[in-house]
Amino acid sequence: MPNLGIQPLCTEQYGSRSARCYLPSPDGHLSCVGDEPGRGGWRSLREIFMSVFLPQGYPESVSTDYLPYQIWDTVQAFASSITGALATQAVLKGVGVGDQTSTVAAATVTWILKDGTGMVGRILFAWMKGSKLDCDAKQWRLFADALNDLAIFMEILAPAFPACFTLIVCTSGFFKCIVGVAGGATRAALTMHQARRDNMADVSAKDGSQETLVNLAGLLVSLLLIPLVTNRLQLTYALYGLFTALHLYANYRAVRAVCMETLNRARLRLALHHFLGQGWVPTPAHINPQEPLLPGLQRHLGITLGAPLHMLVSSVSDFHQACQSHSGNYLISLNRQAGTVAVALHHGASSVDAIQACAHALLLEALLCQALPLATLEGEMLQKLQSQLRGAPDGEVWPVLTETHQLLDRLFPEFLAGLVSAGWVTDRNLLGAEEWRLDWSPKDKKVL
Predict the structure, then answer these.
(1) Is residue 408, in this structure, part of any structural domain at all?
(2) Hey, how many other C-beta atoms are within 10 angstroms of the C-beta on 410?
(3) What's the N-to-C CA distance of the chain in angstroms?
(4) For all residues of the chain together, what is the average pLDDT?
(5) Same domain, 131 and 87
(6) What is the spatial distance between Cα 428 and Cα 355, in angstroms, rounded to a whole number?
């Protein structure tokens, strides 16, 4: 046994596990106090499991919401595996497996049409919504799983309508490929959020290992269930309903467990309203549970961030008024009749400028559409602007926009400081800005 009175040469620690120290022995060898050297994290089945299925350095190498999210994600994957097996059985039955009157050619054509329709859906959805998936990853993740359940339900029902079987499975394939795009893209966005040591590949790989293990468990359970549900439609529908309810609930809990520190429009809206009402900015842990996951009934303006100039103004006089009403790296205009706000960003606009521009648009939205709890020192000013903005004739809102800009210039430094101190990330954002950038001060430029 080593002499504990000897000064240790060094200590070492694997992540957050217990430390060990090395002492010099009389014979010149190293003597270890604590964990035995050479065995590392392989001392127990628990550590083996963690090494295989959790990212290296867990829990320090991932975000604090990693474990609750993965637990509920595992539950939903298991439920989806069971319902997927029920759907597979129904589709195989529908294409003629076990039916002597069906032909291989007919089944092949149906399958090709199903896959081809899905490929078209994948391309169209990625084209139409690909740029929006990062901004609202939680909503799109929940949407993808709900759509997946609808597609599975269609496949289970398809054999009951043989005349429309091909149309139903093609529509289901279309939906499933949309699910693949939305689910894969949002999973990548959530993985980027969870990886805290530039270890996105490791987090993604271990997530794949977890899902594979769950799918294996689902396959084993499916092997037991399939013989029981064959030719028993009521039992099939009952199991589908049970596991679909579990699937949707687990998905809701999973996305609710995610606590993102990057601002999107919904989180910025909540933070801004809280700041205007209470005078301080809440933390991500306070805002994320309030973030809407489904389209709400509350009225919102259509905000285009990074808009081209023609969306802001249509005349030279309007352009000059837009320039006069601003004092930063963006221009803003309001169309009350259409219910839209257009924001043009300067070529040199930073992420903070984009946050301020979006905050200005959200302030206009709040003044026009919502009743703000105006408990701050600027409450009377906001109430005055709200009255002016709602009562101003169409086409005469520029003076009010100027006043809102001046007010925001006073409030935004405090709001930005509150965001930073509360733990929000401001050097990047998920506000969904378009790529148009404007330079409205071409003093040294000449038209050729």
Answers:
(1) yes
(2) 11
(3) 88
(4) 85
(5) yes
(6) 9
Per-residue pLDDT tens over the stretch 23-51: 888 887 888 877 654 454 456 788 888 88
Q: Are residues 82 and 228 in the same domain?
A: yes
How does DSSP assign 350-385, residue by residue?
A: -HHHHHHHHHHHHHHHHHHHS-----STTHHHHHHH
pLDDT at position 3 is: 52
Burial class of residue 275, CB neighbours in 10 A (0-12, 13-18, 19+): buried
Q: What is the pLDDT of residue 142?
A: 93
Query: Do 116 and 253 belong together in one domain?
Result: yes
User: Torsions phi, psi of 149, nearest 5?
Assistant: -65, -40
Amino acid at 65: D
Beta bridge mates, 262: 425
Give the predicted TM-score (pTM) of the model: 0.85
Q: How far apart are CA 152 and CA 240, in angstroms?
A: 9
| Cα 63 to Cα 191: distance, rounded to the nearest angstrom | 10
Structure tokens at 300: 């919102």
Flag whether 19 is in a domain. yes
Residue 299 has pLDDT above 80, yes or no: no
Report how far residue 382's alpha carbon sits from residue 377's, in angstroms, rounded to the nearest whole number: 10
Q: Residue 25's beta-bridge partner residues?
A: none
Determine the Cα–Cα distance for residues 287 and 258; give it in Å rounded to an integer.
11
Task: Categorize the per-residue pLDDT at 163 as very low, low, confident or very high, splitting at 50, 70 and 90.
Answer: confident
Separation CA 421–CA 423 (nearest Å): 5
Neighbours of 382 (CB within 10 A): 19
pLDDT for res 41:
47
Same domain membership, residue 86 and residue 39: no
- By residue range, what is the domain housing residue 22? 10-43
pLDDT of residue 282: 95
For residue 444, the model assigns a pLDDT of: 44
Give the DSSP letter of residue 279: S
Angle between helices 398-422 and 379-391 (to 10 degrees): 140
56 in any annotated domain? no
